[in-house]
Amino acid sequence: MDLSSRDATGPSRRALLGGAAAALAATAVQWTPLGRIPAASAASTLATPPSFPASISLYQQTFQNWSEEITVDGLWTCAPATPADVVTLANWAHAQGWRLRPLGAAYSWSPVVVDPATPAANTLLVDCSQHLTAVTVHPASGSTPASVTAQPGVTMDTFLGTLKTAGYGLTGFPVLGAATLGGVLATGGRGTGVPATGETKLAGHTYGSVGNLVVSLTAVVWDAGSSAYVLRTFQRTDPQIQALITHVGRAFVTEVTLRVGADQRLRCQSWFNITAANLFAPPASAGSQSLASYVNGSGRVVCIWFPNTTSPWLRVITPTPSQPWTSRAVSSPYNFPFNDIVPKSISDLLAEIIGGDAAATPSFTAAQMAGVSAGLISTASWDIWGWSSDVLLYVRPTTLRITSTCWNVVTSRANVQRAVSEFYAAYSAKLAAYAAQGLYPMNGPLEIRVTGVDDPADCQVTGALGAQLSTLRPRPDHPEWDTAVWFDMTTIPVTPYDHQFTGEMEAFVRSNMGAYGQVHAEWSKEWANTPSGAWTDASVIAGAIPDSYTAGQAAGDGWAAAVATLKTLDPSGVFSSAFLERVLQ
Question: What keywords sit in the KW lines (predicted)?
Answer without folding.
Answer: FAD, Flavoprotein, Oxidoreductase
